Amino acid sequence: MTSDDDRNGELGSGEGADGAPPRRRWMGTVLVLSLAVNLLIFGAIGGMALRGASTDGDGLSRRERVLQGMLPPDHHDAWRQAVMEARKEKQEIRKGMQSMQQRIVSILRSEEFNPDELEQAFAERSAMRQELAGVTRRRLVVITSQMTPEDRTFMAERFEQLMARSRARREGREQRGAQ
After folding, report:
1. pLDDT, tens digit, 9 for 90 and up, residues 64-80
2. Residue 164: left if φ>0, alpha if ψ -120 to 50, beta else—which one?
């Protein structure tokens, strides 16, 4: 026993006045939230995939991998071992750098600010950064000193290629920046 009013949707029959199902506002909200969650999940998966591609599963940083690429293939294992040894030494230097950063913060917050003390702290921090860079560089020099002239020629050619690519990227960025 439904009346005409009930069938026209005025009494909640489940149909609108034009015979279409009623609009449910919460469905739009759920759809938007669902899309946002999907984008978040796929973005995270894509990011992990890209990160995995950049580390190539070998545990080397991008810089370490670039340096490895300059070496002849038969020196790659020695390079990986040197990098792993260098990481231990780098950790100690980084601890010192963290202490130095705290010292810089303390100097900056001090009521009795001393610019010479700040300059000295910055110089020490800069020296630590140089030491950090030197850890890997020294190991690369040791590996290179054990190479044959042919291996060093290979390395020189790879280094030239690397510098050419770097120069081309820099020039491309400068051209895009000038536009």
Report:
1. 888 888 899 999 889 88
2. alpha
Q: How far apart are CA 105 and CA 26, in angstroms?
A: 51
Which string of b and e fits 113-126 if b means at least 16 CB within 10 Å? eeeeeeeebeeebe
Q: What is the pTM for the complete model shown?
A: 0.52
Distance CA 60, CA 155 (A): 19
CA atoms of 39 and 52, how far apart (whole Å): 19
Q: How many other C-beta atoms can be found within 10 angstroms of the C-beta atom of residue 83? A: 22
Q: Which residues contact 23 (CB under 8 A, 6 or more apart)?
A: 16
**CA–CA distances in Å: residue 20 to residues 97, 107, 172:** 69, 72, 58
